[in-house]
Amino acid sequence: IEGVFLRREYRRYYPLGAVTGHLVGFTNVDGRGLEGIELAYNESLRGHRGKDQVIRDASGHIIEHVSNIERAADGEDLVLSIDSRIQYLAYRALKKAVVENKATSASAVVVDVRSGEILAMVNEPGYNPNNRRQLRSSRFRNRAVTDSFEPGSTVKPLTVVAALENRYVTPQTIIETDGGTMKLARFTIRDTHDYGNLSVSDAIMKSSNVAAAKMALKLKNRELWSVLNRVGFGQKPGSGLPGEAKGAFQNYSDWRDIRRATIGYGYGLSVTPLQLTQAYATLANDGRRVPLSILRRSDAPAGKQVISTTVAKQVRSMLELAVSDEGTGKNARIPMYHVAGKTGTSRKAEGKGYSKRYNAIFAGMAPATRPRLAMVVVVNEPSSGKYYGGTVAAPVFASVMTGALRLLDVAPDDVSEDRLLIATGRNETGQERDR
C-alpha cells in the first residue's frame, strides 16, 4: 500500500524490573533518560548518529554515498556497583516490612565500607519501568537520596565521637540522667525511662536523650558541627545518582544551647538515608570517609581520615552494646556475626511542633570486629501499633545483612558456642530447637 512502510524501533527492557526501578530509571520513547541512571548518564548511554555525504535525486532519494563524515558511536557501557543478589534481599525484606507495619514508605541502603560502592538501594513504594501503563509519577522518587528526615537517636554515636575527640568524656565517664528529665530554658528533654547514672557506653546502649544532650552541652558549637560535617551531613554525597539532597544542617554560628542539645540526640537537623549510611560507613571504616559510588570501582579510593581510628573503634564497641540483650537494637543481631548499630525513632515535624507520626530507623554495620558492610533502614510512618526503630527497622537490617554477608563470603567473627547453637538451630544436647 502506498505510504505504508516498516521501520525498526528499539525499546529498553529492564531485566530486574521493580527490584532496581528507582536506581536504573527509564527513558522516553526517543531513548532520552527521564529517571535514575538513565537520566544521570544519559549522554554517555545514548551514543550518537553518524554523518554521511550523499547525492540525492530530484525526488530526494539517495542515489550515491560520497563519503563518511562522522562515524556513528554506540553508547558507553556502565557497570553499576549494585549486587543484584543483595538488592533483591533488600527489596523483599523492605516490601515485607512496609506491609506488616502498614507504613507509608521505606528506604534501605547497603554500602561496602572500604570501597564506598553502593551494593543495594531500595525504596517502597516502587514501580516497574517495564510496565509503562501503570507508571505513577508519585512513585518515581528515589527516596534514599531525595528525602531527608530527622535522624533521631542514630546521631547519638556521633555526639559521643565529638565528646571523645575533644576529651570531655571517656567511655567510662558517668552521666547523671536526673530521673529521666532535663529542663533547658522553657524546654524539657525526656528519656523513655529513668536510667539513673549511666556511663557513656551505657548511654548509647540505653539510648538516653538526657545523657546525649548533656554531652552536647559540654561541646562548643563548632566542635559538634565539625564532626557531623566531616561525616557528610549538609553535603550531597556525590554518588552519581540524580536528585541527591543535602538535607538541612544549619551553620553552627546560629545555634543556641537548646539547638546544640537537641542536635545531640538527632533533632534540629535532617539527613537522607544515603547520608546516614555514609556516616556509619565512616565509623565502620575506622574513621576514614570514602566517597560513595553507584558505579563499580576497580580500586578502592584512599578516602580521608575524618575521625581518629581510636575514637571510631571506641564508638563501634559502644554500638555493639546497643545490639546486645540489654540494648535497644537486639533485633538486629544475626547468627555468627557481631553487629554494631543504633536504633532511632524520630517524631515527624508538623507545623511548629511534632506530630504522633514517626520514622523508625536502624543504622549499623557488620561484622563489628572488622566491618565490611554498613546499612541503614528507614520506615516512614508505621501504623500497625509498633513504631520503634528496634522493632520495625532492626529486623529488616538483620534479614538483609545475614544474607549479604553469606553471599559475599565474609568470614564470621562470632563463633562462640551459643552463637553456633543459634545458627544451627540446635540446643545443648544437639537436638533441634522448636521453631
Characteristics:
435 residues, alpha+beta, Penicillin-binding protein 2a (Domain 2), Beta-lactamase, 2 domains, 5-stranded antiparallel beta sheet, two-stranded antiparallel sheet, elongated
Give the CATH topology of the largest domain: Beta-lactamase
Largest sheet: 5 strands, antiparallel
> What topology, given as strand order, has the largest sheet?
4-3-13-12-11
Structural class estimated from helices and strands: alpha+beta
CATH class of the largest domain: Alpha Beta
On the 0-100 scale, what is the average pLDDT? 90
Rg calc: 25 Å
Uncertain ranges: 427-435
Cα shape: elongated
Total helix count? 15
Structural account:
- With 435 residues, this protein is α+β, with helices and mostly antiparallel strands.
- The protein folds into two domains: 9-42, Penicillin-binding protein 2a (Domain 2) (Alpha-Beta Complex); 84-129 and 146-424, DD-peptidase/beta-lactamase superfamily (Beta-lactamase).
- Helix content is 30%, strand content 19%.
- It has helices at 21-24, 36-40, 42-46, 84-100, 143-146, 156-165, 200-206, 209-218, 221-230, 257-264, 273-284, 309-321, 389-392, 394-407, 417-424, and strands spanning 51-56, 62-70, 105-112, 118-124, 174-176, 181-184, 187-190, 197-199, 288-289, 304-305, 340-350, 353-366, 373-380.
- The strands form five sheets. A five-stranded antiparallel β-sheet has the order 4-3-13-12-11, sandwiched between helices. The protein has a two-stranded antiparallel sheet with strand order 1-2.
- Strand 11 (340-350) and strand 12 form a beta hairpin.
- Helix 6 packs across helix 9.
